[in-house]
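Self-study notes.
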Amino acid sequence: MEAYVNLALSSCAFLLSGSALLFNITFNRRERRRNIRQTLSNALNNVAKINIEIANLKQENAGVSPHEIDVRRNLDFQRSTLMTEAEFLIYEKPELLTAIDCSLVAFTFNELKDFKKTGHYWQEAIARSKTDELRHIHTRDYAFFLFGQNREEDGREAFNRALAIELKKNDQHLAVMIDTYLLWASAEFLAGCEKEFKQRISSAKKICEQLRNKSKCQEIEEKIKASQAQYAEPGN
């Protein structure tokens, strides 16, 4: 009898030990995931701040002084280091990466002139988008990137894919589509395609007419006019 009791107690102790071990493994895995996500978020937040700082420098200083060059070079060094850290964490746990993360990484690699990684992360942003609106936005951003790589036909196909994504016919989504046509128009103009530029502006105007909110409509009409003025040739 005593032997059975000892065996039962030993079995219980073994099960409790196994349960404790399993709990510790699960807890440690969750903590590791949380720590990696937190570290990745911190790195990308710092990258975003540097991107904003560089954009402000470009806007404030039309000329390029030696001081500005040094400042921008140091900022580039900082974000290159942060991107190296971010990529290491991404490879460790790629499932933690969100579509918004990917779009920031793509934008930053484009700024750093690493176009292979830029294209990769734009495609990841599209694949990881959880809503139609977000997938539309990331697809159009990828399309604009393709134009910058002198891949106009691929860019047009990507813009069409973005517009083929069905969005609700409310003012918010109509505004998104208008922005897409305006971005496409700017890409066509920069590529030297005046006819296509005018067609995209015309498409943006037609969608603007569908807006119900009149103040929103006026706001977007001004945006369309500004886009036309920005790319208008002198004398036109």
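Second protein, same conventions, sequence then structure:
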Amino acid sequence: MPNRRVTVNSHTRVMPLKTFAIICRWCGNRATVESYPGRPPTLCSSECAIEARKDHDRRRKAAKKAGQPAPRAAVVAPIALPQRFVLWPSQVDRTLDRSLLGPFGTGLLGTLKTKADGRQVLGILDSLLAESWAVTVRWVVLECVRREPEALTARLAVALTPDPLRKEVQWQREVDDLRSQMIGQGRLNRSQRDQLRALGADVSNHVVGVQMRGLGEEEALTATQRVVAERELAAALVQLEALDG
């Protein structure tokens, strides 16, 4: 635990500092702040503290002129974060889809030989398909926040509605069918290799394509839009986790 040396009236004392994970009540961002033990801090930086104080003073003076008590400082409610899914497209781990394709056919799909290789590819496809729904939800939220906020509720309701006709559901059936052919040892036949390569490319290209669209929207957000998007993403992904069990 870090410490801070404090001197009061020639008396020196080493005070232990505690690390707090907070959501700043001024800017709304998550931050890690070191402070003395006790009540957790509510502001993430000196800049936010200055702006929050200016805002409070303005509101206090306005209330005084109107003969009313000074309003309390606004407090941003904590965000309930998803447990399984990351919040932003930029936080997504691309290791799995890159391992499938690789440069110049060096990925797993280009070097398929045995049933063990096939089982490894199917395991990766399971993970990509589980992430695909979250990738779509992120893109819908970010596109709406940036381009058409009034459409967010309707589009998100569609994105969060389970649909047996979704591509991901059909691909999952193909994965399950192929898994029954990967039992035991031995080499893959030509038909099995072709099926695995076609399915792997379809799933990977779809997930990466939607992921890149979401990343583009994230990078184009203004600071104000980012604060709104963070709350909408958290709420939508928490809801998705409840649906996806």
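Instructor comment on the second fold: Residues 89-244 form one domain.
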